[in-house]
Amino acid sequence: MAFQSIRQFYVEIPPVTRFYTTACALTTLVVHLDIVSPLQLYFNPTLILHKLQLWRLATTFLFFGSSVGFAFFFNIVFTYRYCRMLEEGSFRGRSSDFVTMFLFGAALMTFFGMFVNLLFLGQAFTLMLVYVWSRRNPFVRMNFFGVMNFQAPYLPWVLLCCSMILANTIWVDIIGMGVGHIYYFLEDVFPNQRRGYKFLKTPNFLKLLFNEHIDRDYQPLPADRPGGFNWGGEEDQPPPDNNNAEEGAPNPEIARDPHQDRNQRDPPVAAVN
Description:
It holds the Pfam family DER1. By secondary structure, the chain is mainly alpha-helical. The chain has helices at residues 2-11, 15-32, 45-50, 56-59, 70-88, 95-113, 122-136, 155-165, 171-189, 204-209, and strands at residues 141-144, 148-151. It has a domain at 37-210. It has ten helices and two strands, in the order αααααααββααα. It has a two-stranded antiparallel sheet with strand order 1-2. A hairpin with a 3-residue loop joins β1 and β2. α2 (15-32) packs antiparallel against α5 (70-88), α5 packs parallel to α7 (122-136) and α6 (95-113) packs across α9 (171-189).
């Protein structure tokens, strides 16, 4: 019974979050069991370019430490939580766009990682997810271990201060927040500016992969449009009567006596507030 509950919980996790957190957990587990060495996983541009060890481009985002302890569980739960909230929130029904954000963020972090001595970028990737979620949920109230309350946009800065207090390198937080801000600006801010446009385009093969392909020739029904049916719009008007198309032919509805018997008029319709 417990296995069925765990399986049900796992299946209900959104696909991108399920894949990424599972990959992170398995990567850390195989290192902990000494099946793979961290030296085979860390980010090394020289080995990637000259020896074509391309897997390092992915494993640098999947490793959270060789020991399965408190730090690992904190990082994996933090990653799972904000990754799932993003996928079920602003990316609901748009997993292909979520994967595009993953690829864009990973590419930028890989570029910045060439100039900063960081071996693993998993925590920076988590900070990117936290930053994007916090900017898209500005009115959510946060509680930091029961010590202080603040709104969601301050969460990345609180985490940065914690890294400074714990004497951890702050480049991880700076890169994660910087890449998150670049994505947020290009996706949510710049398209709404004057002469702005959508910079990031989701490839069609990703939409097909997640079964999100939309026919461009599809015309939505009136009930599917914003505002519902177009009451009184031009497209709802009946076609003109060809029998009265002659010039000067009187329209029987217009020529009707306005002082006709009230009993013959249409009954009034009550206004619904």
